Amino acid sequence: MLKQGLSANRFTAWAGLTFLKALGWRVEGETPSIRKFVIIAAPHTSNWDFPITLAVAFALKVKIYWMGKAAMFRWPFGGLLRWLGGIPIDRSRSHNVVDQSVQAFQERDHLIMVVPPEGTRKKVSYWKTGFYHIARGAGVPIVLGFLDYRRKAGGIGPTFFPTGRIEEDMLQIRAYYATITGKRQSQFGNAVVRS
Asked: Exposure check for the chain: N or C terminus, fewer CB within 10 A?
């Protein structure tokens, strides 16, 4: 499922910081000193989220893996996107992405997996909970990553372990993201789960 891609180094950190500076953005927070975690990428409301998220990861010297719809991985950019840590997800068929992701965590000593819980740039009523079930199944924490377009800041927020009480945990997540502004804020879905 996961192939070796671009590793974090001084050059990628410089490239990420240079790109962000050119856009007037800054990086906030520090990468947790743990080797495995799931990081939420939110809000996801614009095509700009992808390059800015990659630049933030580069600036923080973090090697990430991220999921994207399979259509993104077609020629001519498929190889590049995989090299950048992309994992194609076929949303038209029932694949057990959670189990595959949990297995990937179990097979590695180091893995940071970025998951956009909204699953799309469009407004959604509910967040997909795969990120939660991946973290819980793998026994790894969830890190709250963000892009705040109002403040032009991206980075890493709090870290917590899912308790298994998803509704209660989502209240904490929702409280954190309540102050974060997406590029198209009207498209930012509430951090709630389907009852």
From this structure: C
| CB atoms closer than 10 angstroms to residue 166 | 15
Contacts of 147 (CB under 8 A, 6+ apart): 41, 42, 43, 49, 52, 53, 56, 153, 154, 180, 182, 183
Q: Please state the φ and ψ torsions of residue 146, each to the nearest 5 degrees.
A: -150, 155
Specify whether the CB–CB gap between 142 and 160 falls below 8 A: yes
Count Cβ atoms within 10 A of the Cβ of residue 66 and give its class: 0-12 exposed, 13-18 middle, 19 or more buried.
Answer: buried
25-114-10 Cα angle (round to 5): 55
pLDDT of residue 194: 57
Yes or no: say if 121 and 103 are a contact pair by the CB < 8 Å rule.
no
pTM score, whole prediction? 0.82
Reported in sequence order, the residue ranges of the chain that DSSP labels E, i.e. its strands, are 26-28, 36-42, 65-69, 86-89, 111-115, 142-148, 153-160
**Predicted pLDDT of residue 87:** 77
